Amino acid sequence: MMTTPAPGGTSTLTRHPLTEQQRTMLAFIGGRRDTYYLLSEAFRLTGPVDPARLRAALGLVLSRHQVLRSVFPQEGDHCALVFDRSGLPTEASEAEAFEAETFEQEAGFPSVAAAARAGLDRATRPMELDRGPLLRVWLGRVSPTESVLVVAGHHLVVDRWGFRLLYRELAHGYRDLAGLAASAAPPQYWPPTTGPDRGHPDRAELFGRDYRAVRALSRAASTPRGPAGVHRKRFGGEPARLLTTAAARLSVTPYLIGLAALLGALSEVLGDPEVIVGTSFSGRTDSRSLRAMGYFSTSVFLGARLTVPPGPALVRELERQLADWRLSPRRQWEGLLAEHRAEDLFPVKFGLEPAEAAGPGPDLDGVVVERIDEPVAEPAGTAPTARRPLDIDVEYDRDALWIATTYRTDAVPPALVEDLTERFAEHLRRLATPPVGQP
Asked: Hey, what domains does the chain have and what are their CATH numbers?
């Protein structure tokens, strides 16, 4: 770690080496202006909101987490520069400007929907990675008792788990600013570098299969990004019940049941018994990382050769693979695939979680907070893009199961996505049904 004077300012900038994940992300972006890696969430707030209290809480959160004050200069020293402050807000003009750009508020919206559209448009505009901020909080007022809160952050500095930490500290600071200030300082993002992942012979088998159809899917997406389509389908109570029934019957998590069903469906629509998918992994494997803001998430890979429809044997094999990944040192997926000469084995990404896992957002004192999940139209003049041919997200609760698939329209026909969705539900049904003669 090094320090250097800020240009023309009163603060000191602290340099940290980029993590492997940050390096690979910046290489993919190819510059210092980006919207691709932005995360955003919107919330409806019912009750009187005090913008000054919210801004003060946000300022204190910024002061507690260096990574949220990071910028990524274009120069080739590959170090993040951090405003090194003992507390924000301060009287220093550059710190005040940084905070002012992080928090914005507007008023006069005719409806919650109008405020959500405006807020997402404002918060998700391109981020300048070399000047920041890389976190934006936007508050839009509809009436004295109704507002919309939009939070957007860049993956260079925050992941979904980090959003939960952010909301927890925002709520604490909004309720009791002095209490948050007096609380224990959180761990900072920059962790010790972990060594390479070695000694896993099963990985050679996993990555050594032919996966002809999966590789063909990668080749079809000939550019880093391409035009995107989205297919969404809501299934009524039966698929959700089947998911949890199958999980209970085999004593595993619903995630493993969903993964087995997805591999079965993917094998059928691609016409190849060998299938592999990437799936998100939080990367937070110790108590320190669980409390640190930053981008720890990565992807791990699970695959199989299916000679029979998915059943208990496949579920157990996937359970073993997942346990092996969780016990292994965290690796950034690009380096991992390159090590196995398997760079073309990540055209399909899969995720599954209960609907409540997303959480309600910051629990602001005296305010009811509700997540806004309705899709918001793309800003005028823009078109959605996707990196992977297939990116499948599944959510479920007791009453329904939702499948949202973002796909590259230059690589995948819509009919394949529709077929994949229906076959996924059918495999859930089969996994939940015991073989004849078994209870």
From this structure: 2-182 (3.30.559.10), 201-356+378-432 (3.30.559.30)
